[in-house]
Amino acid sequence: MTDVLVCVKRVPDNSGEILLTDDAQSVDARHVGFTVSAHEVCAVALAVEVAAATDGEATVLTLGPGDAVEQARDAVAVGCASAVLIEADSGAHGPADVSRAIAEVVLAHAERGRTYDLVLLGNDAADTGDFQVGARLGYELDRPVLTGISTLDVTGRTVTARGDGPGGAEVFEVPLPAVVTVMEGGVTPRYPSVPGRMKAKRATVETVIPRTAPTGGGRVRLKLPPAQPSSVQILGEGPDAAPAVVDLLERLGVLPT
To answer: What CATH number does the domain containing 48 carry?
Structure first.
């Protein structure tokens, strides 16, 4: 039996134009909705799969304001058995603060007899690009850490994980308990059913407050990449444009030359 803790973060939906706050410390979320990153969607799917395959349970955890419970309930709707909200200002918490707060929950649950053999996280945060939480959490818990993993399975007390490295596909085996960060693309995301959504609405979410004041991330500012220039070529108007269209399709390989 493998009990899994999967950690997600409430982030602005970046499917449209991305804007920064006036202090350039975070993504401006005033005009967009909230979601979790694609990496974390896949981490939730893996957590539910591993728990089901080993007769264990998956628990979702998030650190953020009270509204972040919405993202925790989304994970319950697709198969997590329970949820934990670390209610705190996520903007004031740097990677070291977040990893410490998660570790506090893991250790507190262990004292009550609830142990997590596997902790899954997204490979990085969709809003700030932090890659540190998984590695720092492994250090806090004194567990082996794997990063950039696409798929994994558990046999006995061993995790077999797969990911893409500089030289191609890589396979790792580490003993449980372990911490793993997940990249999108290796597993099909799970989508909630109507009964799943109803279950999530009724689910009790455990709320905890961090015991240690945050020190912050030391971030100077975020920067948006420069806008990519675009150009338009007018091939012609009316029937006179037909030869130019044919030439273009031949250059693109759509038509045989």
So the answer is: 3.40.50.620
